[in-house]
Amino acid sequence: MAEPATLTYPRLGALVEDGGTRFRAFAPKTTTLTLHLEGEAAQSVAMTPIEPEGLGAGTFEAFVEGVGAGARYKLQMDDQPPFPDPASRYQPEGVHGPSEVVDPSTYAWQDDAWSGLAQTDLVVYELHVGTFTPEGTLAAARRKLPHLKALGITAVELMPLADF
């Protein structure tokens, strides 16, 4: 029997690389996609349609030299208003503001010694940040973690953080 085909999909969003950032988005119902960079790197860049294996038409990308972590941007389909990147890692001004480029390789992990919990020790609490505390913020939820621990909760699953 033949091995099943393995599909690989291109990573989407802002991908920091040597010398700049590659912006990639999937927008199959548009003919043009434009990247709008803000701030010091302000410019508009036409994204190029590509057809990666397994995904087909509708993927666009642009590599912008000299742009790295901290740059803010939006995308624009055809003549529609610009919008945040649906694959963004960070929305510092909220879900309607510009997306911000993040370089995850620069994060200094401080928990190398932690090996996790055995599956039999997991007691999962599904937490919706917006309704868990009166403030509805991650900072307020963090202050309540000792309460969850006292209840016997060993893992917290954050429910969606984005507007729908």
Q: What is this entry, summarized?
A:
It contains three helices and ten strands; from the N terminus they run E-E-E-E-E-E-E-E-E-H-H-H-E.
Q: List SSEs in N-to-C order.
A: EEEEEEEEEHHHE
Distance between the termini: 43 Å
User: C-alpha Rg, in Å?
Assistant: 20 Å
* Class by SSE composition: mainly beta
> Mind describing the biggest β-sheet?
4 strands, antiparallel
In which range does the helix fraction lie?
10-25%
Based on DSSP secondary structure assignment, what is the total number of beta strands? 10
Low-confidence runs (pLDDT<50, min 5 residues)?
Answer: none
Shape: globular
Q: If helices are DSSP runs of H or I spanning 4 or more residues, what is the number of helices?
A: 3
Strand numbers in spatial order across the main sheet = 1-2-6-5
Beta percentage is 25-35%
Nearest-integer average pLDDT: 89
Q: Would you spell out the secondary-structure blueprint of this structure?
A:
Blueprint: E1 13-17, E2 20-26, E3 33-37, E4 43-46, E5 48-50, E6 59-65, E7 72-77, E8 99-100, E9 124-127, H1 129-132, H2 138-143, H3 145-151, E10 155-158
Parallel strand pairs: 9-10
Antiparallel strand pairs: 1-2, 2-6, 3-4, 3-7, 5-6, 7-8
Question: How would you portray this structure in words?
Answer:
With 164 residues, this protein is mainly beta. 10% of the residues lie in helices and 29% in strands. The chain has three helices and ten strands, in the order βββββββββαααβ. The strands form three sheets. It has a four-stranded antiparallel beta sheet with strand order 1-2-6-5, with no helix packed on it. The chain has a four-stranded antiparallel beta sheet with strand order 4-3-7-8, with no helix packed on it.
